[in-house]
Amino acid sequence: MNIENFQESMYQLIVETSTNLPKDVRRAIKAAAERENAGTRAAMSLDTITNNIKMAEDKVSPICQDTGLPTFKIKTPVGANQIEMKQAIYHAIAQATKDGKLRPNSVDSLTGENSGDNLGGGIPVIKFAQWEKDYLDIRLILKGGGCENKNIQYSLPAELEGLGRAGRDLDGIRKCILHSVYQAQGQGCSAGFIGVGIGGDRSSGYDLAKEQLFRTVDDVNPHPDLRSLEEYVMENANKLGIGTMGFGGETTLLGCKIGVMNRIPASFYVSVAYNCWAYRRLGVAVNPETGEIQEWMYQDGEKIDFAQPAATEIAAAVETPAEQNVITLTAPITEEQIRELKVGDVVQINGMMYTGRDAIHKYLSDHDAPVDLNGQIIYHCGPVMLKDKEGNWHVKAAGPTTSIREEPYQGDIMKKFGIRAVIGKGGMGKKTLAALQEHGGVYLNAIGGAAQYYADCIKSVEGVDLMNFGIPEAMWHLQVQGFTAVVTMDAHGNSLHEDVEKSSFEKLTQFADRVYK
Ligand code: SF4
């Protein structure tokens, strides 16, 4: 094989996967956007998402800042040199990271040290299999941490909250799948896609679930029972009303694919792999002699170019959402300003904000802050950053990260430093809600995965502290303009996340009766 060509082919596959959503995913998102009523929070979120998809494609920049865990599945003709291919993929990954197409995402599990090039023990995942055909089939998925953390595995029989007994049959499987969608709420950046694996053991069950994510959104399951279960789940999971980002709405689930394998008599696992709307998976057929791409996969059917129907309308809807009261905030923010805000308000932020993820929150809990945070805004974000030749930093992607990880620290840090607002995704828990009420603070939910949209709102990088934690974990000082988010937890003890969880639980209980005999 011409290995230089092969490396270039892998580079193209990585860049295209990171920056350009496949056609089947675009069609599913378009259908979801059409189901939502104009002016709702769900419609506003989907406008931002579709706008972001278009921006990522145009700028050849990451759709979401979270590169996730790159996973390659490769089928080779007998005799192909897998060692050589692996090395070429490593080089391509490192190059794509250097070029800002992927965020450095590989960290030492014990020390937290970031390798800086997306390589390291176990990363990327590359799985080879041989087949009788005469070309290489190479597929890649970039599955982010926010949705990976919402994967769930059930061991049947089980008692499921809201649904009762789930037995070792199709009806028990049905309950597990509905429960998996409920427990994810909006935290995996819904609306999402699920792959379900029935059978196997704890590891092969999850492998089977993830394998389903390589099926096209619109394929039809050849197994009649699984086909009807997929249809049932698509029809009914969307009745839970969790909606995009967990803001409530008509679409919670964009796709459900179910696979089955044998098991041993003692075990019965149902494994669910949850994937966010930023469903970055592509594939190529590669010539094993020349190393060149022969064909791209997941490219059948109509391509939705989100800019075409209403680029200006989308932009306008994001800037000034209909039926929403848009409030402008500029830090330093006073306690009085914060206490006027209530759940559901849309805010636009101008001025400074500071990024902080896990390492920063832990650090701030027992150190002084490197800057005065009184009245300031903390953004839960691990951006993709590139330094130019003059030494200036540029933001390549900057969507919100999952906030709940900061729950043990957030309230205390807000009170300690006088922070008035935190921005993230997925909401936070009771401890933070109590602190917001006591101290006078708000939680703002940004649109998960909208990394290009938010990068565009960042007008300059004013500085950075604690770079020893690595690029995603450092504290970046960002000057923003028109950064839009929704108040989902306010200083009056209200939480949209709690409300949606409660109402979706009530709806879930309606599915407790046996459907499959
Ligand atoms: S869209 Fe959300 S869950 Fe998906 S990779 Fe991005 S931040 Fe993670």
Automatic annotation (TrEMBL):
Domain Fe-S hydro-lyase tartrate dehydratase alpha-type catalytic: 8-282
Annotated Fe-S hydro-lyase tartrate dehydratase beta-type catalytic domain residues: 293-499
UniProt GO MF annotations: fumarate hydratase activity
EC assignment: 4.2.1.2
Keywords noted in UniProt: 4Fe-4S, Iron, Iron-sulfur, Lyase, Metal-binding
Reactions the enzyme catalyzes: (S)-malate = fumarate + H2O
One Pfam family recorded for the sequence: Fumerase
Enzyme class: lyase
UniProt cofactor(s): [4Fe-4S] cluster
Protein family membership: Belongs to the class-I fumarase family.
Summary of subunit composition and partner proteins: Homodimer.
NCBIfam families xrefs: ttdA_fumA_fumB, ttdB_fumA_fumB
Function: Catalyzes the reversible hydration of fumarate to (S)-malate.
Name the record gives this protein: Fumarate hydratase class I
Top-level taxonomy: Bacteria, Bacillati, Bacillota, Bacilli, Bacillales
